[in-house]
Amino acid sequence: MSRYFKRKWNETRGDEFDSWGKSTWYFEIGTDGYPTKQIELYENGNRLKYHSEKTFDDYGGLGDQALDMNEFQNFEIEKAEFDNEWKKSNPKKEHQQILDLISDYLSNHYDQRFGQAIFNLRINEFVNKADPAKENYKIRDIHGDADNKILERIKSQLEWFEEQKKRR
Fold this sequence. Notes:
Blueprint: E1 3-9, E2 23-29, E3 35-42, E4 47-51, H1 69-72, E5 76-77, H2 79-88, H3 93-108, H4 114-120, H5 147-167
Antiparallel strand pairs: 1-2, 1-5, 2-3, 3-4
């Protein structure tokens, strides 16, 4: 049966990411005492998350040593607290897709400002795109747009860009 722990570290990382600040770590520990899931929350808002399908990245990795249960006994938490934090660490699938598309677009169009990318990808758009002289030539309110509708607009616009490249 898994156990759950939350521990604050009052020291910074001591590496090139030291400016992230102090951290709070959450662990899900298997019966063998090794972490099966791990979350690191830093003062600057960065979140790192590791598990069996993502054991490491450019910033760190899933602990490869068993936790000393004597040292951690005062830091045990309920599964619900861990699960709540784990869910926060997971963006919705649609959110991640939108972020990935924006990131890919910006890496290929690094000369553009973020605001330009938002318009170019049709995330934000004008009510009346054809005639700036008309009163409704203003930014359309996208507050109520469903994530999948925004995804559709982005994908449609990227397809249109590809078609334009073929025509050149």
